[in-house]
Amino acid sequence: MRRPTLADISPAHIRHGVKTGIAAVLALVLADVLHIEYGYWAVISAVIAMQMNVADAIEMCLYRFIGTVMGAVMGVVAIMVFPDTPVWNGVSVFVTTGLCAFLTRWDPRYRMAAITVSIVILASAGHAGRIDVGLFRVLEIAVGVGCAFVVTVTLWPVRAAVGLRRDLAAQAENCAHYLVTLVDRFLARQTHVPADLLDPLVRATPRNREQLSKVRRHESLIYFYDNQPLDTLSTVVERTTDHLRVMLRSLNACDADGYDILMDAELRALAETVARTLRRMAATTTGVTGARSGNAAPGWLAALGERLRRRGRDGAAPAGPCARPGPPSASTLPCSPSSTPSTTRCANWPKT
Amino acid sequence: MLTQFYAFYYALRQLAEDVKVLAARMAGEEDDHRDHLNLGPGDATP
């Protein structure tokens, strides 16, 4: 494993450290002001709830707070049901934590509830006013979570939507680059490309979906987002990656050093138009919210439509059978070797 | 061999169609000819 160096330290991580420290101190001060006996629970909650971006922080705050409330309620019920003896306390811990573990099948927040219910039952054992312990647990957690939330949102907030937009734009650029590369290689007598060429894009797809889901479910609670541009750009990258994979597999399955393609210019122009459209889409999704640019009918979109219409009108006869065989050594396909450029069609082309 | 040529071409063609539909959606236009649910999968087999 590589040793970390100073170059690995990013300003974002330094800011995150400072924010976490501030949230912890704020929770401690607030717990002191509210005369909460076990104020360190508030500090622990604040540290746990602090995350790098707003979406993750909100998710963690909700997870921790709701899980704690559920655990506190179960703990109070257990305190009322079971007598305060070592044996019965053991039984109540067994029943409640077992139930919480079982319920995590449907809701992961019961994992947090199991921790809380154990603390409520065991920390209050042998004390008068056991139920108050449960209620104070909720208050401590609420203080910690509240401090973490306030600091995350107000101090150098890092929005997941911004990072996602940046990633998607870069991926759309990469899609455009790979598209042009694949078509170039296809037209260069089907020169093969590395089979793992598209792996970074393939790996990014589930990550994009996860981030988009977090932005929708959590960040949208406190920021106004028009999620459609991000959603669309994510779909563009996903769809394009799917098609590029088919193109890559088809290209690598061709015999290398194969054929010159008669429709070279048309295919290249189509690929470049699509690549240009991808780049424009990446550039058009602007601002932190990914808001649309507002151009009703961009010229680049019309250009792509026109290019597609032209391809359709030409009979959509593509490269393969109308390929001009390469050097004499190359195998020949069932079309006329003497075909002249792109207007020539093979009889067996399907009409699209 | 022919199948690979076809597959490559149709994948390119399908990609162009999908990008056109999604670009229209992003620009706030709706394409009457294609619903987003009908966007073709990666399978470009003719």
Largest sheet of chain A: 2 strands, antiparallel
Number of strands of chain B: 0
> Widest sheet of chain A: strand order?
1-2
Our measurement of the CA-to-CA distance between the termini of chain B, rounded to an integer number of angstroms, reads: 13 Å
Mean pLDDT of chain A: 80
Number of strands of chain A: 2
Detail the poorly predicted runs of chain B.
Answer: 34-46
C-alpha geometry of chain B: rod-shaped
Helicity level of chain A? 55-70%
Question: Helix and strand succession of chain B?
Answer: H
Beta content of chain B:
under 5%
**Integer-rounded radius of gyration of chain B:** 12 Å
What is the strand content of chain A? Answer: under 5%
Number of helices, counting only DSSP H or I runs of 4 residues or more of chain A: 11
Q: How does the overall form of chain A come out from the CA principal axes?
A: elongated
Q: Please bin the fraction of helical residues of chain B.
A: 40-55%
Name a few traits of the molecule.
heterodimer, A: 352 residues, mainly alpha, two-stranded antiparallel sheet, disordered C terminus, B: 46 residues
Question: What would your notes on this structure say?
Answer:
The complex is a heterodimer of chains A (352) and B (46). Chain A has 352 residues and is an all-alpha fold. Chain A has helices at 11-33, 40-49, 54-81, 86-103, 109-123, 130-154, 160-187, 199-217, 228-253, 264-284, 299-313, and strands at 259-260, 324-325. The longest helix of chain A is centred in the N-terminal third of the chain and has 28 residues, at 54-81. Chain B is mostly helical. Mean pLDDT of chain B is 72; it is low at 34-46. Chain B contains one helix and no strands. The interface between A and B is large, with 59 and 34 residues.
